[in-house]
Write a structure and sequence with these properties.
Elements (H helix, E strand, L loop, with lengths): L16 E5 L6 E5 L4 E3 L6 E3 L14 H5 L3 H19 L3 H21 L3 H10 L4 H8 L3 H17 L6 H11 L11 H22 L1 H11 L3 H10 L1
Antiparallel strand pairs: 1-2, 3-4
Helix pairs in contact: 2-3, 2-4, 3-4, 3-8, 4-7, 4-8, 5-6, 6-7, 8-9, 8-10
Amino acid sequence: MIKCPGQDQRFWKPEDIFDIKCTNCGCLIEFFKDEPELKCRNCGNIIRNPRKDSGCAQWCKYGDQCLGKNIDSTKSLCDKLIEQMKNIFKNDTKRINHALSVLDYAEKIQLAEGGDALIVKAAAVLHDIGIQQAERKYNSNAGKYQEIEGPPIAREILNKHEISSDAIEHICKIIANHHSARNIDTIEFQIIWDADNLVNLQDDFEMLGKEKVSEIIKKRFKTKMGLQIAQKLF
C-alpha cells in the first residue's frame, strides 16, 4: 500500500511518538503525533494531545482521504470492545493486559503497513476472547481450542455494533487462525500475528534465551514493521 510520506510512520522522526502523563492517574499514554486524543486504558480518562501535529494533512485537500474520516468512530468502537473484553475476562488482568499490549503493537504496525484499522483493532482486542471458555472445556489444550471457542464469542460481541458482515467474518477468521495460520494471509491477519508474537516473545524471553528468540524472529514475522520492532526489542 502506497501512503503519503507525511503520514507514513516509516518517514517519522523518533520525537513524533511520545508519552504524555494521564492527568488523573499519572499513567503514561503513548501518543502518535497526529492523534487528537486518547483514552487512558488504566483509568478511562480522556487525554488530549498537547503536541498534535497532522503534518501535511492540515492543509492538503486529500487530508480526509489520507487519514480517514472515521478515525474518531474507530477509536470509539475500539474503546467499547475493550470494555466488553474486560467484562468477559473480569479479574484476569494477565489476559486483559496481553490484549491491550497486542493492540498497541498492532496499531503501530498498521500505521506503517496499511490494512483496515477497524479490523486490526477489533481482532487485536478480541483475539484471545475464547481462551477462558477453552480452558473450562479442554484444560491443558486451551491454546489449541481457543481458535474454535473464540469466533462465536467475538461474533456475538461484534454484532452489537455497526460493523459490516464482511468485516465481522474477517475479524472472526483472524481469531480462528491467530495461532495456526491455516487458511488466511491478509495484511490484517499478518499484523495481528506479528503483534501477538511480539508480546509473547517478551513474556517468554528469559525462558527461551536470546539465541532461540533471534532464530524465531528470523522465521516467524510476516510484516516489515513487525520485524523491525522485534529486532529493536531483542
